[in-house]
Each structure stands twice: as structure tokens, then as C-alpha cells.
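can u do me a favor
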């Protein structure tokens, strides 16, 4: 025969169960308190890692007005590379590339656009042909959106010049300057980025031994240099007063 539960005289039976429940709850909360004890060294290590990962802000005393920052850290922004410039060029002058009017060469720190003489200038002239202007407008649009210095270089073959120019040096330099002036006419490119250079017949692509080779050597090259600090690039050539930093150029 089992022994009957003995309860205090006059106490109801449910109070025994209630007392057991309270004891269990007390043990439960004691265990929670013991588990919540923090190791100071581990806490500092974990909080430091989280601060670096999520960029927790600290209070710094500064006298300058805070400026806005990008949501994505600048450290994760990819550099403006030759590959990006090359893709922009291929997208803008795709038709000219297919026609063979422009050749593109990508080097480690620059992209070279070679404009053939037959679509840019008449023989012995430094006046732009009308059909070359839409192509130069597309190239201007590329230059407006990419950083880096721009070198416009004129080249000729070894045939002696005749007419208003004293030498191939004069002709090549004048052609380069003409292209620079056309690219700057819309006032959308900082003129400090531009340079015009004439090489005459001193740097041929191929030997000047056939008419076809001479035609290849007569060219204008637009060289887009990869910048050292692409973040400093500004699309508008304005000074501190908001005025264009170049003199108006003829629009004809």
C-alpha cells in the first residue's frame, strides 16, 4: 500500500504542486543569471570586430560642418580602369569601329583611338572634314564622362608637304590643335586636361613603302590616360566662381 501524501492540516492539495512550480522557476532564473555573466575580454574583442565590420560611429570633436558620405565605403569602390574606358568607347563608336574608320588600342595605362586621315582631313589640309564631326562629337561625349588627361597627337607620312605648311611637323601639330579646339567647343571638357602634339613623320606605324602604308601613317590619335586619382574627376570645367575656365571657341 502506498503512503498517502501528508499535507499541513487545513492546507489544500494544490498548494504542494504550486510550491514545486515556484521552486523550479527559481532554479530556472538562477541558471539564466549564471549564463548571462559576461567575459569582459571576450566582449571587447567581439565589439571591436563588429565596429570594424559595420562602421560604428564614434564621437569626434570637429569645428567643420560634417559632409555627407557614400553609403558604400570608398574603400570598396573599384578604380576607374582602362577596361571601363574601353567599354565606353566600344559602346559609343561601335559603328565606326565596324567600318574601320577608328582603331582602338588598350595599353596598361591608356586607351588610344586612331582616326584615319581619310575621314578627318583632306590631303595637306588642317580643316576638319564634315563627316568627321559626328564621330568627334561621340568621342567628346566619352571624354566628358571619364577622368584622365587627353593627348591629341598628329602624324603624317614622309611625303614632303606643299602649300601653307612649311613641314610635316607644322601640318601634324596644326591638325592636332584643330581636333582639340573642336572637342573643347562645347565647353564641357576642362581645357587643362587637353594637350595637342605634332610628331610629323617621325613615328610611323608601318614603313612608308606603299600607298596603303602611307595612308595608315597619316592619322590623328586621341590618347585617354588612366588617372592616378579618379575620385578627383569633375565633369564641369568651372572655377570657384562658377565660370568656365576657357575662352569661347568658334562654333563653325
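np, heres the sequence
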Amino acid at each position: 500500500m502506498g503512503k498517502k501524501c501528508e499535507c499541513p492540516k487545513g492546507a489544500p492539495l494544490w498548494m504542494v504542486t504550486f510550491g514545486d512550480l515556484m521552486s523550479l522557476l527559481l532554479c530556472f532564473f538562477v541558471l539564466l543569471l549564471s549564463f548571462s555573466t559576461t567575459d569582459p575580454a571576450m566582449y571587447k574583442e567581439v565589439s571591436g570586430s563588429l565596429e570594424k565590420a559595420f562602421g560604428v560611429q564614434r564621437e569626434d570633436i570637429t569645428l567643420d560642418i560634417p559632409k555627407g558620405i557614400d553609403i558604400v565605403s570608398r574603400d570598396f569602390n573599384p578604380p576607374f580602369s582602362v577596361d571601363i574606358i574601353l567599354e565606353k568607347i566600344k559602346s559609343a563608336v561601335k559603328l565606326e569601329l565596324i567600318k574601320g574608320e577608328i582603331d582602338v588600342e588598350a595599353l596598361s595605362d591608356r586607351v588610344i583611338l586612331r582616326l584615319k586621315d581619310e575621314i578627318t582631313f583632306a590631303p595637306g589640309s588642317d580643316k576638319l572634314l564634315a563627316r568627321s564631326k559626328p564621330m568627334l562629337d561621340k568621342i567628346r561625349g566619352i571624354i566628358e564622362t571619364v577622368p584622365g588627361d587627353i593627348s591629341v597627337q598628329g602624324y603624317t607620312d614622309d611625303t614632303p608637304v606643299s602649300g601653307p605648311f612649311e613641314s610635316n611637323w607644322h601640318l601634324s601639330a596644326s591638325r592636332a590643335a584643330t581636333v582639340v579646339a573642336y572637342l573643347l567647343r562645347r565647353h564641357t571638357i576642362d581645357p587643362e586636361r587637353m594637350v595637342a602634339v605634332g610628331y610629323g613623320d617621325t613615328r610611323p606605324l608601318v614603313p612608308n613603302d606603299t600607298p596603303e602604308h602611307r595612308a595608315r601613317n597619316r592619322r590623328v590619335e586621341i590618347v585617354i590616360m588612366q588617372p592616378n586619382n579618379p575620385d578627383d574627376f569633375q565633369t564641369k570645367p568651372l572655377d570657384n566662381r562658377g565660370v568656365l575656365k576657357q575662352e569661347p571657341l568658334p562654333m563653325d
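Confidence is low (pLDDT under 50) at residues 65-78, 235-252. hope that helps!!
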